[in-house]
Specification:
single chain, 308 residues, alpha/beta, eight-stranded mixed sheet, 9 helices, globular
Amino acid sequence: MLESFQDVLAPGLAPADVEAARRGAAVAGLVDVTLGGAFAAEDRTVPGPEGAPGVSLLLCRPTAGSAGSGLPVIYHVHGGGLVAGTNRAGVAEPLAWARDLGAVVVSVEYRLAPEHPHPAPVEDVYAGLLWTAEHAREIGGDPDRIVVAGASAGGGLTAALTLLARDRRGPRPLGQLLMGPMLDDRNDTVSSRQMAGLGVWDRSANETAWTALLGDRRGGPGVSPYAAPARAADLSGLPPAFLDVGSAETFRDEVVGYASRIWQAGGVAELHVWPGGCHGFDALAPEAALSRTARAARVAWLRRLLAE
């Protein structure tokens, strides 16, 4: 599969590549967010962090069957290496979950690095969650059944969001679904070194992205856990987590370590390491048996979580 994409997907990302990555993410975001009429879609700008611009949310509500009030809400945070993407990037999978489970989807757009370094992205994501929790019933949702979800950089921001919400005593999500999340700015795990120059997102791309977010602070002391969740000293008191990652990707070891630390803190986590999976394998090869299994596991976890 990777060989077939070699002309359009390179493992690295240099600072000079960011604009091209943004153009590519914009094209990838051209999806039918109604899923053929299954959802009514609306763009809404809501209050941003204090002193910052408003935050753009994509709201997708079921149009039939389960449409009504008190539905679960999937709050989605897009990927893109912290430097690219919109609230439509990667939203197709959460919409598929919502169609199966009868849920509302809210996808948040956040300011991108390097123009907007930490804490701008996570503060935007938090502002969007605040609005979603406060207005859940207005959009047909249940404020007590909000599941936060994201892939890659969006997964890292989702993990950071749950830490921030815990520490600020803000909305408590019902669960957090982290797909190949980007958690650690130190970029020094065994898997990050094993996959250097290989796959879709390698150590050099990771360095570019984290430097865009943190500048000279990347990898040094005192980095905030709201920027890099792996830096958190305390992972107790978090919502139940689902984490998955490929065995052949840069983020493998930091994801396994994060899940282990949730368990050590007395928390609940379900971890899957998909054998042979590169970063984003299920999006690149959706018909592969491994991809179907991975996606089914996420839906099964959501179904169990929402049934509790």
